[in-house]
């Protein structure tokens, strides 16, 4: 459905996620789901490309509906972004993830980091910095253990506002990752302007490696750029040994994908951490 004249929100939802249709029954079910506690967090390992040691986890939201089963985020995040529920869900995810990190670190007995997706609407919310401070204070998680994942689109909508918010995040020592790097509309100039620490190469550029020459050229260019700008790189969606070898041999620091761990509930992630102990 084409929604026009509804203001800025429509621009983000259409560009960033293109919901197939406005599903009113699913939307109603979401409010119910919040009350019933049907939302959960899964954690996907982010590992050092060379050693495969777990360095951190990305927090990924799940909705376990009693009859529909697992509703994928591509279906419910766009709705939450449109109706504003994302602010509440996102605040909960941020706080819960910071608390969970402490438990992961207790098991690993070394510092790890937690990565949390921040939607465009959350990023522009007036309350976002309060939400961030509350999550850090409540959990006791130092800011530098937190990575906030935002997309190029989130930054480019209002670069002046983005610069101010990113400065505040940097004051708290939280790191910024550009999610789905290379897929958005942006100019590389923002890498100079904003305090960014991490680039996440989108799965679109990884999935056909090593055969796809153009994808390989793009990955190489991103890795080169990151090296010169002193940014770390995470290759997303790594599913095969060949893909891992390809990016690792070209200097990629971290990988995340089904090869080294699918998104999993916290208790499974803790078992994975125990097995992955490198003294
Ligand atoms: P994303 O942030 O790019 O997250 C990575 C997605 O790739 C996840 O999908 C993950 O399960 C999937 N993935 C990871 N490794 C592989 C792989 O090797 N192969 C394949 N085929 N897929 C892989 P997921 O969990 O379905 O999430 C989809 C999107 O929903 C996320 O994309 C993110 O944009 C959004 N999302 C998820 N959780 C949250 C959240 O808590 N807040 C916000 N704002 N957005 C979220
Ligand atoms: Ca992400
Ligand atoms: Ca991504
Ligand atoms: Ca993505």
UniProtKB/TrEMBL annotation:
Organism annotation: Massilia forsythiae
UniProt domain EAL: residue ranges: 23-277
Lineage: Bacteria, Pseudomonadati, Pseudomonadota, Betaproteobacteria, Burkholderiales
Designated name of the protein: EAL domain-containing protein
Origin: domain of life: Bacteria
């Amino acid at each position: 459905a084409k929604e026009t004249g509804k203001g800025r929100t429509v621009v983000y939802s259409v560009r960033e996620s293109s919901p197939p249709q406005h599903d009113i029954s699913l939307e109603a079910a979401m409010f119910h789901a919040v009350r019933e506690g049907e939302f959960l967090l899964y954690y996907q390992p982010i590992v050092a490309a060379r050693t495969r040691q777990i360095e951190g986890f990305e927090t990924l939201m799940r909705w376990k509906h009693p009859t529909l089963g697992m509703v994928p985020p591509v279906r419910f995040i766009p709705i939450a972004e449109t109706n504003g529920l994302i602010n509440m869900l996102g605040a909960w995810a941020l706080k819960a993830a910071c608390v969970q990190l402490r438990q992961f670190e207790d098991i690993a007995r070394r510092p790890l980091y937690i990565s949390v997706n921040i939607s465009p609407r959350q990023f522009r919310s007036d309350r976002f910095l309060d939400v961030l401070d509350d999550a850090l204070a409540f959990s006791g998680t130092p800011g530098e253990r937190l990575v906030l994942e935002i997309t190029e689109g989130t930054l480019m909508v209002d670069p002046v506002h983005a610069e101010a918010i990113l400065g505040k995040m940097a004051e708290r020592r939280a790191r910024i990752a550009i999610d789905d790097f290379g897929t958005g509309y942006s100019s590389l100039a923002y890498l100079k302007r904003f305090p960014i620490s991490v680039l996440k190469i989108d799965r679109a550029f990884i999935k056909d490696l090593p055969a796809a020459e153009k994808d390989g050229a793009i990955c190489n260019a991103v890795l080169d750029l990151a090296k010169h700008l002193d940014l770390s790189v995470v290759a997303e969606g790594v599913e095969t040994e060949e893909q891992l070898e390809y990016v690792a041999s070209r200097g990629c620091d971290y990988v995340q994908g089904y090869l080294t761990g699918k998104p999993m509930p916290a208790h499974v992630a803790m078992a994975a951490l125990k097995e992955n102990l490198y003294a």
